[in-house]
Amino acid sequence: MIRGQVSSERAAQVKLWIGGPSGDLHEISATIDTGFTDFLALPSDVIASLKLPYDATFPAILGDGSTSHLDFHRVTVVWGGRQLRIQALATAADALIGMALLDGQRLTLDVTAGGAVTIEPLQ
Q1: pTM of the entire structure?
Q2: Are 83 and 33 in contact (CB under 8 A)?
Q3: Pairing of strands 67-79, 12-19
Q4: In this structure, is residue 88 part of a structural domain?
């Protein structure tokens, strides 16, 4: 089970352990974004500091309907006690957890400042 909390700005946040090719794991805070359909978005400075390998560039339709070409990198994320190797989108914003990473999970939110966030596998 992954636990976190709702921020004063009503953002559901959890801590994640991520790593790159060196094998070292680093803890980051990530916000759950149910409008983001991919796995994970990471700030470009985090990608650079972990030396995450470039994977591909894909065209994407953004939330405002515009199209952009986005870079993806390979990252290891500890999820439910397992290390998964996934693609992470490079972004200028904060780290985001998308719906692809949440697939097969139950997400429970107490939507109030300081409220509980829990992510657990569906049984």
Answers
A1: 0.91
A2: no
A3: antiparallel
A4: yes
* Domain total of the chain: 1
| Cβ-based burial of 109 (10 A; exposed 0-12, middle 13-18, buried ≥19) | middle
Q: What is the CATH number of the domain that holds 82?
A: 2.40.70.10
Average pLDDT over residues 101-121: 97
pLDDT digits (tens, 9 = 90+) for 57-106: 988 777 788 888 989 999 999 998 999 999 999 998 899 999 999 999 99
What is d(CA 46, CA 19) in angstroms, rounded to the nearest whole number? 10
DSSP 29-74: EEEE-TT--SSEEEEHHHHHHHTPPEEEEEEEE-TTS-EEEEEEEE
Round to whole Å and give the CA distance between 8 and 34. Answer: 18
Residue 114 lies in a domain: no
d(CA 84, CA 115): 28
What is the extent of the structural domain holding 54?
12-104
